[in-house]
Amino acid sequence: MENPKSPFAIAHYIYSEINKGKSSHTLERELKLSKYYINKHIWLCTWPKELVDSCLFYPDIFTPRILFSTFASRQKYYSKNEFEYLRTEIEKLIQKGAKHKPRKAVNYPKMRAGGSLITQRVRKENLKKIEKELAIKKKINEELKLNLEELLYYQQQFKELLGFHVVVQYSKSKQEGEIRINFKNEKDLDYLLSKMN
Predict the structure, then answer these.
(1) Which residues contact 132 (CB under 8 A, 6 or more apart)?
(2) Residue 187 has pLDDT above 50, yes or no
(3) Considering the entire predicted model, what is its pTM?
(4) Which pLDDT score is estimated for 129?
(5) What pLDDT, on the 0 to 100 scale, is given for residue 114?
């Protein structure tokens, strides 16, 4: 059973009460939470179910401090691309595991907006890595090659014409293709050039 004091249980309670028609001011007084934390709890309700389940499965890692100070404080960033950045961050935290007890909340002096320079650099590196992976996936999906029969037919035609192994590729989205001819030495290259003239 879900812990009634977990941020997700409180978030679902707040969400259900707001749907029933309770005002946020009433909830603020009832739960003794500020409007800021009411909104952060509501944002937790927008997470995909598998991410919520992962956080509930590892309560020692995903403490309220992590959920609010790390994730909810940067809602706009972590909500991008259907929570892709949040999913990556959660997976990374699960792989690292909880190596120490969560620290008690302390009133630290305010840092720069967006965290320390080290945190910003790490965040930028993670963002670049995720964007690179997405670009590779997009490129693979985009390069739709000819079906096997057509590909083999064209390769066979070139092989008969030139006498060398040829690879034919075509991208329908870009409407352009590529032909690669494999040769072994200069003599083969001279032969190819004479065939083309």
Answers:
(1) none
(2) yes
(3) 0.45
(4) 84
(5) 53
Cα–Cα–Cα angle for 148, 151, 157, nearest 5°?
140
What tokens does 165 get?
Answer: 């192994």
Residue with tokens 């001011």: 25
Which amino acid makes up residue 13?
Y
Contacts of 10 (CB under 8 A, 6+ apart): 31, 41
d(CA 30, CA 91): 35
57-61: long-range contacts (C-beta < 8 A, 24 or more apart)?
Answer: 58/93, 58/94, 58/98, 59/3, 59/6, 60/98, 60/102, 61/93, 61/94, 61/97, 61/98
Instruction: Identify the band that residue 101 occupies on the pLDDT scale cut at 50, 70 and 90.
Output: very low
pLDDT digit string, tens, across residues 125-164: 888 888 888 887 776 655 555 566 777 787 888 888 877 7
